[in-house]
Design goal:
alpha/beta, 2 domains, Four Helix Bundle (Hemerythrin (Met), subunit A), IF-2B-related, 16% strand, binds 5-S-methyl-1-O-phosphono-5-thio-D-ribulose
Length: 347
């Protein structure tokens, strides 16, 4: 499984990202040398997926600290850059989580020299990267218990190694079941308009030798009706305190169809994806992305008539009552989620 697609290069003092815009056709690297590069990478989806953007943001804080060197008011300038990183994309809570962790480290240390802060942050970003993979493996161990030998598992978007520092959340659950010797095949929904399922989930599962079939997003009803899907496992960008789940657009429709066909619908997400300040899904901001992603799916010719409007909401919210279980690094949460989430956070 991939775990080297987010690399810090000490010689170049740069963060290198495997550019997910071009996969699986080309493996190109994008170098982030400053905050502008990091924000560009986040917003144009060079890197995407909630935990992966969290780790990228953490390295972004380090790069920001390098950028303000030589400024007398570096503290103010640095806070401004951190705010830009925190808000680069609105739905996944992991950006905020990563920046807040860096800010907490800053507050906890009597930092006089900027260089000292930079070195604390670089170490912390590397720690977060390693932790993320370990968390995903723990999540995989818990979640694999939900899958049986022979299961055909549907997933939506890409919640695999590429969406994290390594191993993946929802796809990590599948990898862990396969590692346990279970025969699992995967239906990867193509996930319009950015095609994370067709391009990224299919790419990494195929590379790892896991049987994968790509399906059009609008095939879910038929596939379930035909009995071709035993379980659904998806990732999450933000989980509210009541268990409502924001994930890639289309997830809600999959969850409704799963309910209608008696297919268990599971979510896998680390604790960093929970937002206890957010009471329910109605409070989760939904990112709207450029119309061009929909009108120009290959990046070149326009497929829609000129002048026609486009909806490009990037996420939707699945109500907690449609979710059979939430897999975390601490175990599998079951309804009622408000209580289960409070208990997990020791409240
Ligand atoms: O817009 P994206 O590609 O960043 O959206 C990603 C998703 O919706 C994933 O399913 C989610 O982040 C879970 S990642 C482990």
């Amino acid at each position: 499984m991939m775990n080297d697609h987010i690399r810090f290069d000490a010689d170049q003092d740069a963060l290198l990202l495997l550019d997910q815009r071009y996969l699986p056709l080309r493996e190109e690297w994008f170098a982030c040398r400053n905050t502008d590069d990091v924000i560009y990478a986040l917003q144009t989806m060079v890197v995407r997926g909630a935990p992966a953007i969290g780790v990228t943001a953490a390295f972004g804080c380090y790069l920001a600290s390098r950028e303000v060197r030589g400024k007398t008011d570096w503290r103010i300038a640095l806070k401004e850059l951190l705010e830009l990183i925190r808000t680069a994309r609105p739905t996944a809570v992991n950006l905020r989580w990563a920046v807040e962790r860096m800010e907490a480290l800053w507050r906890a240390n009597e930092v006089v020299e900027l260089d000292h802060l930079a070195s604390l942050w670089l170490d912390e970003a590397k720690r977060m990267q390693l932790e993320d993979e370990a968390i995903n493996r723990a999540m995989g161990r818990h979640g694999a218990e939900l899958l049986s030998d022979g299961d055909r598992v549907m997933t939506h978007c890409n919640a695999g190694a590429l969406a994290t520092a390594g191993f993946g959340t929802a796809v990590g659950v599948i990898y862990a079941a396969v590692e346990q010797g279970k025969r699992i095949s995967v239906v990867a929904n193509e996930t319009r308009p950015f095609l994370q399922g067709a391009r990224l989930t299919a790419y990494e599962l195929h590379r790892s030798g896991v049987e994968v079939t790509v399906a059009c997003d609008n095939a879910t009803g038929l596939l379930m009706k035909k009995g071709l899907v035993d379980k659904v496992v998806v990732g999450a960008d933000r989980i509210a305190a009541n268990g409502d789940v924001a994930n890639k657009i289309g997830t809600y429709s999959v969850a409704l169809l799963a309910k209608a066909h008696g297919v268990p619908f599971y979510v896998a997400a680390p604790m960093s994806t929970f937002d206890l300040d957010c009471p329910d899904g109605a409070h989760i901001p939904i990112e709207e992305r450029p119309a061009r992603e929909v009108t120009h799916p290959t990046g070149e010719s326009q497929i829609t008539p000129l002048g026609v409007q486009v909806y490009n909401f990037a996420f939707d919210v699945t109500p907690a009552e449609l979710v059979a279980g939430i897999v975390t690094e601490k175990g599998v949460l079951r309804p009622p989620y408000t209580e289960a989430i409070q208990r997990m956070f020791g409240k």
